[in-house]
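Annotated sample (chain length 310).
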Amino acid sequence: MSGVIVGFGVIASVVAIGYMLGRIPLLGPGAREVLNRLAFYVASPALLFTILSRTDLSVLLSPPVLVSVLSVVVVAGIFLVVGVIRRWGVGRTTVGTLGSSYVNAGNLGIPISAYVLGDASLVAPILLFQLLVLAPVSLTVLDLGNGRVRGFWPVLRRSLGTPVRNPVVIASLAGVAVSASGWVPPGPLMEPFDLVGGMAVPAMLLAFGISLHGSALPGRSGPDQVPVLLAVALKSVGQPLAAWALGTLVFGLEGAALFAVVVLAALPTAQNVFNYATLYQTGEVLTREVVMLTTFLTVPALFTITLLLG
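Output written by the structure step:
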């Protein structure tokens, strides 16, 4: 479990620095927005391109991948149905659906895969699914939900065009294309991507820390209380249970393979979700609280899973 402790320690330290920057405020009143835009439009695309261009795409065909994908679909579908029934609106329902299912596969999933599961590549399939399916679909819905596009054909053109205009999706597709081609880019060509991509996680964590200054304690009464608690319950409890049930009852996984998919399902909500909510100015409080609470709950969840399955 040393990988879990180290991973959370690093994240907490950077978020704490962001909180202090929010208190001073050293970077000015627009620091959070600048950091979010830097991460979304520049650093994250570079990081995702480097990761996906070096990923073996054959891992997408294994049973554990199907378990991970289906567990995401199950919990996301539950939140989506509840959001529609409760009429939480397109924006809040979309970011809440992401909050209940979008795994922190980057800055936390990679070290945990490496130190706890012994193989950093195990998190790559989840990362691919989220970047190539979950994120593009959700960002398209958020883009269309702003109300600036009306009419069947304009909406259709916007729906088809939004993914290819999104820098995160463009970089992900480019990385997949490079990996599928078998071409290995020379080191000097990849150095700028590695350098710029290294800013992505720190920028998102600093922006998250800045947003915590002056914020109320998460989970308290308010219009977002029910969506927050539902998303947290689905992400921290529902998704690991879904992964365990699918793995054992449907795909017959056991041992290390079952342990791996359940551990990855128990990871907290990714910081990307808060980044998306901020950029589209919808559900920011909801996503911030979901990210915070699921991160706090991940340590006891992983200890429990290790005791039961490890």
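Annotation: The two ends are 11 Å apart (CA to CA).
Annotation: The chain has 14 helices and no strands.
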